[in-house]
Amino acid sequence: MAINSWSNLALSPDGKKIAVAAHGEIFAAGAREGGEPQRLTYTEAAESDPQWSADSTKLVYRSERDGDSSLYLYDFTTNTEHALTHSLNLDVSPIWSPDGKSIAFFRNRKELHVLTLDEKSAIKSDKVVATGELSFYGDGGLAWSPDSKWLVYVPLGVDGFSNLNAVPADGSAAGKPITFLANGQNASHIAWSPDGKYILFDTAQRAEEPQLARVDLIPHVPAYREDQFTDLFRKQTTPGGPDTPTQRTRPDENSGTQEQTPAEGASRRGAGAATPAKKIEPTKIVFEGIRNRLTLLPIGLGVRYPVISPDGKTLAFLAEVAGQANIYTYSLDELAREPASPRQLTSDPGNKSEIAFTPDSKELFYLQAGGGRGGAGAGGGASIHSITLENRTIKPINLTTAIDVDFDKEKMVVFDEAWSTLDHRFWNGKFNGANWPALRDEWRPYIAGARTGAELRRDINLLIGELNSSHSGISLPTPPAVRTGKLGLRFERAPYEKDGSLVIREIVPLGPASLEGSIKAGDKLVAVNSTPITAATNLDSLLEETAGKRTVLSIETAGKKRDAIVRPITTQVESGLLYRDWVESRRAYVDKISGGKLGYVHIAAMGDADLAQLYIDLDVINQGKKGVVVDVRNNNGGYVNGRVIDIFARKNYLLMTPRDGSPAPSRQALGQRALGLPTVLVTNESTLSDGEDFTEGYRTLQLGKVVGTPTAGWIIFTGAQRLIDGSSVRTPGERIQTLEGKDMEWHPRPVDVEVTRPLGETETGEDAQLKKAVETLLTQVK
Fold first, then answer.
1. Vertex 151, ends 147 and 157: CA angle to 5°?
2. Sheet bearing 123-131, strands edge to edge
3. How far apart are the first and last CA of the chain?
4. I need a labelling partner for 390 at 20 to 30 A (CA). Which of 53, 107, 132, 524 fits?
5. CA-closest candidate to residue 470, choices 423, 427, 430, 417
6. Which pLDDT value is given to residue 52?
7. What is the largest CA-CA distance in the chain?
């Protein structure tokens, strides 16, 4: 099996080496030359998450060879490997201390451990320094202080909010909070300044744009440019010797020059200096008043994965614009003459990740997923690049190798990974009444008999089915499909079945044929790009790879042929047009049967794009009605139900009127999304997940009546875990309950007025559920 895409990039502190993972193995190579990397692990189980020691001679990484996740160490000076932890625990997120003497990691989401090693990398001690809900099975927020005396981690707190806590690395005292934000998503990466005086991290509530927060660990005294002139007159220690810096006393810190090297500020995935610092000042944390020492930096972009350069002058971070994550920098130099503003480093397609500075602070290394179909990221890996900060020169680091994969061995690994993932992460510790360990033994022979990857995943799905849970299963990423162009045409069935004739029955509004203008229902499509259409012709094959390209259709009308020039669209775009056409038909239906009194919106799902579409659909026409029918039938879920609820729950309480003008409700006048009208909700048995959460909120808050049929009862908060073969197993990890503590999984949300649509009703143009909803709402608005 050829390997040329990678994950888990780690740049060594001396900047000369890189470590990566691919297909469950760990590799290392020179940071400059590329070529074939050195393979470090040779197991059927998965290894991941390599991290360099401070002296750049050792790696620690996770391994699943012992059943769950243990930590192993590879020593390049002896080319040997040995286990650091060896148990049936889930040990994740290992991180070396800057002095290279200790490794911190999370165990089972509940414990923060610190392993102290001797000069031969044997364990001297293993201390639990913090407990609680600490990590979410992966790269949790965890960072060492530059002096290796403190750890910062991100436990869950009240109401699911997460904040940074600091704890002495020797366990001599309990951890204390250093931030107090009411946010649920904090610290995709923690960046500790090289001088140890402040920490940067990203923070947000879900569905909000993340911001960059700074917390000063000691009261901050600004640097002044005027001091640079004063330093010109400082005395010299000896004739011809270096100047002695002018020293200023700052609160809560010792005087003296900070001699900081890049390694001192290295946190997770960072890079530092090859030589140790002459002197490392102790990191101090003044907990008193720290709540008031948090500020938000005016970046103006959604910030993820902040990293501070070894010299402390530059911040690098990831920001997503137009669906692509790119790398930006931001000056942290207080003495810079120009105000700081974000500077974009990369602009090419493909999401970036795993950014790390070189020791001289002049370059960044990073991973880049494929920007197009079939790119490097298609299977979950990415290519390695470096970029210079000064002139933005990008250099690919091409690593290529090959490994032998024994399917009969790997399928058992995939099975164990899937079982173990759900063993640790399934929302119900009693597994919905299933004997999960016994099921593992029962299904192992079936897995052993699987002959293909498809059979393997089918068997694992049958095993997962024993849990009787929604939002679950295993799948392989779908390979890029052939882009078949769509014309926005529907054809008559009878002529096609008779002799293959394509007689146009319907033209999709705003589709390619509709925009062309001359094509009408009843016309016949007889050729595409000069290729005649016969009874044996596959129209899709003629339209392969034509999306977005000039395409010539031969159209026959009453026996006369002519050419029509169109630009086909993708299947996804055509599906969207068909959906919008359906929405407009439902809006017209409601308008007609309500006598123009009621408006209508449909919410297809609960994602960001769906929320944006709702803002568009609640237009001035809907706002001008006496009430609005809200339709969530066939809504397949997402996560923005709370924001959607707000739109319908907010009530107006003030009017704003300009001189000689018309009054307007204050919420609308000030730009807040609020309907402020009576509504009725329509659901059906295909309303799923977050669509059901919305339905529950709508009923609980008594926003209106619910009409239709009860929802599906598929209500679990889920994620996914990638396995060694590239497949992903879904992880239904959090139960959803009503305020009374009742589980919503398996329990459809009820309706106030139950209406079932008769079979065949769609063909008649009628809609019994919408009709009843209109009748129900009209009783409120008369």
1. 155
2. 91-96, 102-107, 111-117, 123-131
3. 71
4. 53
5. 427
6. 97
7. 104
- Residue 87's H or E segment, with its range, is none
Q: What is d(CA 228, CA 143) in angstroms, rounded to the nearest whole number?
A: 33
Query: Do the beta carbons of residue 60 and residue 268 sit within 8 Å?
Result: no
Structural contact between residues 132 and 163, judged by C-beta atoms closer than 8 angstroms: no
Cα 765 versus chain centre, distance: 41
Closest CA relative to residue 262, chosen from 320, 213, 194: 194
Separation CA 571–CA 576 (nearest Å): 9
**Residue 140 confidence (pLDDT):** 57
DSSP 8-class letter at 519: -
Task: Retrieve residue 525's tokens.
Answer: 């499509």
Residue 50 clears pLDDT 90, i.e. is over it: yes
Measured CA to CA in angstroms, residue 260 lies from 53, 149, 200, 277, 504 at distances of 18, 16, 18, 6, 74
Of 547, 604, 541, 542, the C-alpha closest to 571 is 547
SS3 for 22? strand
State yes or no: pLDDT of 255 exceeds 50: no
pLDDT confidence of residue 260 = 35
Query: DSSP string of 531-542?
Result: EE--TT--HHHH
Three-state DSSP class for 580? helix
Q: What is the pLDDT averaged over residues 345-363? A: 94
Residues in the chain, overall count: 782
Q: Rounded CA gap, 150 and 176, in Å?
A: 11
Q: Which residues contact 236 (CB under 8 A, 6 or more apart)?
A: 242, 243, 244
In this predicted structure, what is the pLDDT of residue 186? Answer: 83
Q: Strands 679-683 and 627-631, how do they pair?
A: parallel
Q: What is the DSSP string of 38-78?
A: EE----SS-EEEEEE-TTSSEEEEEE-TTSSBEEEEEETTT
**DSSP label of 37:** P
Q: In what order do the strands lie in the sheet with 716-722?
A: 474-475, 728-735, 716-722
pLDDT of 378 over the 90 cut? no
Residue from 414, 420, 458, 425 nearest 439 by CA: 420
Query: Do residues 92 and 140 make contact, with C-beta atoms less than 8 angstroms apart?
Result: yes
Report pLDDT for 225: 62
Burial 55-66 (b: 16+ CB within 10 A, else e): bbbbbbbbbbbb
Report yes or no: 780 and 627 within 8 Å, Cβ to Cβ.
yes
Q: What is the pLDDT of residue 278?
A: 55
Residue-wise pLDDT for 85-140, tens only, equals: 987 889 999 999 999 999 999 998 899 999 999 999 999 999 999 999 886 544 55
Beta 531-532 vs 524-528: how paired, if at all?
antiparallel
367/381 Cα distance (integer angstroms): 9
Burial of 129 (0-12, 13-18, 19+ CB in 10 A): buried
Helix axes 436-448, 407-425, angle to 10 degrees: 160
- Strand ranges inside 558-616, DSSP E: 560-566, 598-602
User: For position 221, what pLDDT does the model report?
Assistant: 78
AA letter at 284? K
Query: How confident is the model at residue 271, as a pLDDT?
Result: 42
Element (H, E) at 500: none
Of residues 174, 151, 179, the one with CA closest to residue 163: 179
Give residue 485's identity as a one-letter amino acid code. G
